[in-house]
Amino acid sequence: MAVKHKILYLYLALACFLGIILIFVFDGYIGVYDTLIIKAGENEQKIEADYWQRGGRDWPLDVEWGGKASFQYEVDNRRFSSYKADIEVSVWHDLEKVSDVLVQSISVGSFDKEQVEWVVDTAEIIPDDVSPEQGYEFTLSIKRGEIERRFVVYVRSSDFPIKVVPAPPR
């Protein structure tokens, strides 16, 4: 009789251990995640959801003067219910909104993905009084509901490269 109780306790302990492991697996998987793919010239960058979860801030991006950058924003719904949100993309310079790029509502079914794409043309954003040798910098803001992702975009001309000055020896 004592052996049956020991085996019962062993099964109960294994079931609890398995339950705890399943809680951690589901907690790390369930949720709404976003991924952004940026193509500027020959460069392609992919920003995964874990970058933002680790506390990542503004992502820097270099674009050629007068060039275009295309964006592909994917919302991955890993929940048992559907997810709805408004996606708002805008361009900012010196804390002032320059233009709205995209305003779109999305509805993502449970365990499904939805993509939104847009292109930013730097020729349309840069003011006429700014020259290529000065360079230009703006912030691209992506809002999905209460969540905001920001990208600092540096527009530079290849004719006026950035001069890298080495640090003095110590």
N-end to C-end Cα span: 78 Å
Low-confidence runs of at least 5 consecutive residues: none
Q: How helical, in percent, are the residues?
A: 10-25%
The number of E-state strands comes to: 9
Number of helices: 3
Question: What value does the Rg take, in angstroms?
Answer: 24 Å
Helix-strand sequence: HEEHEEEEEHEE
Instruction: Quote the beta fraction.
Output: over 45%
State the main characteristics.
single chain, 22% helix, alpha+beta, four-stranded antiparallel β-sheet, 3 helices, 9 strands, five-stranded mixed β-sheet, 170 residues
Describe it:
The chain is 22% helix and 50% strand. It has 170 residues and is an alpha+beta fold. The strands form 2 sheets. It has a 5-stranded mixed sheet with strand order 3-9-8-5-6, with no helix packed on it. The protein has a 4-stranded antiparallel sheet with strand order 2-1-4-7. Strand 1 and strand 2 form a beta hairpin. The longest helix is centred in the N-terminal third of the chain and has 28 residues, at 2-29. The chain is elongated, with a radius of gyration of 24 Å.
Q: Short description, anyone?
A:
A hairpin with a 2-residue loop joins β1 (31-40) and β2.
Helix and strand arrangement:
Elements: H1 2-29, E1 31-40, E2 43-47, H2 49-53, E3 59-64, E4 68-78, E5 83-93, E6 96-108, E7 112-121, H3 122-125, E8 136-144, E9 147-156
Parallel strand pairs: 3-9
Antiparallel strand pairs: 1-2, 1-4, 4-7, 5-6, 5-8, 8-9
